[in-house]
Write a structure and sequence with these properties.
There is one protein chain. By secondary structure, the chain is α+β, with helices and mostly antiparallel strands. The protein has a single domain, classed as Jelly Rolls (Sandwich), CATH 2.60.120. Helices cover 21% and strands 37% of the residues. The protein has three helices and 13 strands; from the N terminus they run αβββββαββββββββα. It has helices at 3-25, 110-113, 218-242, and strands at 30-32, 40-41, 54-59, 68-76, 90-99, 116-126, 134-144, 150-158, 173-176, 182-191, 194-200, 203-204, 206-210. Strands 6-5-8-3-10-11 form a six-stranded antiparallel β-sheet, with no helix packed on it. It has a four-stranded antiparallel β-sheet with strand order 1-13-4-7, with no helix packed on it. Helix 1 packs antiparallel against helix 3. The longest helix is centred in the C-terminal third of the chain and has 25 residues, at 218-242.
Length: 243
């Protein structure tokens, strides 16, 4: 086999390989939980009384097909009183971590539920109409590997107080009541000045959207370099032959 043929085949193979390798690193959306008609949670987005200051939700690692860089969370408003209600006028600060606590096993001491690699994701202020069928929060991408444990989303909630709210007009988002893939814990202040943490078998149905990265994977970069080097060598060989 001539050097020219070898270089041509190497360059072509490298460039052809780029496409499938890049596709392998892309991830589809993952929705955790199944919405059940007639039920939902107002926590932490739409409760009009007993305003929580902290809400945590765990997602079973088994719900994810593999590691992903989470870029956005979407919550759904389609099963219970869809298209109605208002958001609780609050500021939400979300953080992610990997935890050994599973669905149905969150404790009422919030910090004890937080696992390794805890990192802030997003801070967002919400107010006004919650009539849209979905609500999305985007943030700093968080790399989650389900092989390391379950996923915990930790919400810290800051609001103006119940005196600025309409008592009883809760807005509910779709919740999963299977108790298998997700569960939650939140604190309440039903009695002024007294907070109590309560666990829930249900958790908000959540769609995880992968972050879009413009940075090539290391393997893709290496193959691209190899392909370009091969093309360059082929050009030099041709020039020598033509000269």
């Amino acid at each position: 086999m001539s050097i020219r043929t070898l270089v041509r085949r190497t360059a072509a193979a490298s460039l052809v390989t780029l496409a499938p390798l890049h596709a392998a690193t892309a991830h589809a959306q993952v929705t955790v939980g199944t919405a059940e008609p007639g039920g939902g949670l107002c926590l932490p987005l739409g409760c009009s009384h007993g305003q929580p200051s902290r809400y945590q939700q765990v997602y079973a690692a088994s719900a994810f097909g593999g590691a992903m860089d989470i870029g956005a969370l979407t919550f759904h408003h389609t099963q219970f009183q869809p298209g109605a209600g208002l958001f609780a006028p609050v500021t939400l600060a979300l953080a992610f971590s990997v935890t050994d606590r599973g669905a149905g096993a969150l404790g009422t001491v919030f910090d004890d539920n937080v696992g390794s690699g805890a990192r802030a994701f997003a801070t967002v202020a919400i107010v006004g109409s919650a009539a849209a069928p979905t609500f999305t929060i985007s943030g700093t991408p968080f790399h989650y590997d389900p092989a390391l444990g379950n996923l915990l989303v930790d919400w810290r909630i800051i609001g103006p107080g119940d005196e600025f709210r309409f008592f009883g007009l809760n807005t509910y988002f779709d919740a999963d009541y299977s108790g298998v893939l997700t569960s939650a814990v939140a604190d309440h202040e039903f009695v002024p000045g007294f907070r109590e943490a309560v666990t829930f078998d249900a958790g908000l149905v959540t769609t995880f959207t992968p972050a879009v990265s413009s940075v090539p994977e290391p393997a893709t970069t290496a193959l691209l370099g190899l392909g370009l080097a091969g093309i360059g060598l082929l050009v030099r060989v041709r020039r020598r032959a033509e000269g």
